[in-house]
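User: quick one, fold this
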Amino acid sequence: MTVYTTLCFLAAAAMLIAFINSKIGQMQTTIAITAGALILSLGIVISGHNNWFQLKDFAAETLNEVHFDDFLLKGVLGFLLFAGGLGVKLPNLKDQKWEITVLALLATLISTFFIGGVTWLFFQLIGIPFAFIYCLLFGALISPTDPIAVLAIVKKLNAPRRISTQIEGESLFNDGFGLVIFMTLFTVAFGSETPTAFGVVELFLHEAIGGIVYGFLLGLLFHYLICHTDDHSMELLLTLGIPTAGYVFASLIGVSGPLAMVVAGIMIGNWTRYIGFSKESEDHLDHFWELVDEFLNGVLFLLIGLSMLTFTFHKEDWIIMAFAIPAVLIARYISIRICYLGFNRYRDYNPYSIRILTWGGLRGGLAIAMAMAVPAGYMIVPEKNIDVREIILVMTYAVVVFSILIQGSTITKLIEKAKIAERDMGIQPSTYKQAETKTQRETAKE
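Assistant:
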């Protein structure tokens, strides 16, 4: 089958699972799709193990043709992050700018080194010679929260404003910093040259700052184009140019495409929305991009569930996977707790903030895509053909699946408790939306 044919069948499967869930299930759609894909994967594996029918090799070969890392990092990621940026409320972002900056930078760094150190100690304990640099590499790719997973699940639960803004803002902006750490450690682990401090700073400025500047210019260009057309359909079609040609061009000039999409999305969603679009297009903008977002998320989360078929599991892998989940959760809690030691000196927060940020720090396809970028062949246990890539992949996959299925499906109770706490504090959530919309329109017109 061609890649297009495979993606068509995957999209149909995702829509079928979503439809069944809407009729008989109560799960959030992306959680239901991931769970359905995992059940299907397990069914294929069990049937092959019992010689009922053999589909695992065919399914794995078909999925490998899609190239999950390229499909996400060089394809749909631009659409999903742009759609996420459109939904960000700029007044809320300004109110939480320092918290989001600290969470995106400091929390990611603390988590990376904590996970790296604990992982290295664990492997020493079980007798597997897993180098410290590989442990740090795993920490770097698993520490940033995944904006796709977060926005697909958490934002639909109507969490308290400040908590929601911190979760969404952190997940959208910590990619640039996390990528710098990952690429630096990747070069140390597998490259021929050791990066210098100047090289790291240059990479950060070129990737992260360059991506933000490019995203601003891209948003400015399309704001101008949208403002100078009266065609309702063209106004919406122009927004497609940002995550398509705009995202691809970012990779050509070597800047962060993900950050560019977030910045451009925030500009279009908070500026162009109110002074550039006609009334008809403004009403349709969110519906149009929600449809795109739902469709691509369905395919992505189905691929996450089916990715299990492409892995080779050994007995040691199950022990490693069982370790990775609590290690990442503890690292997340510690990094958030340290940040809040500073936050609490200047502002009062919802008493459930730390718990929600810890449990709501979801991981998703981005972590798996980065893990898949690790080259194969660096053997750790040669007699069992276990290499660095396999160990990092199985740890990452365990954390991602637990994050989506368990954390994503149980965070609702924490958010409900946080809402009750805010009502007890005399805060009415309904007033936020009115104030935000009014402020956005006034800011855009200025």
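User: anything notable?
Assistant: Confidence is low (pLDDT under 50) at residues 430-436.
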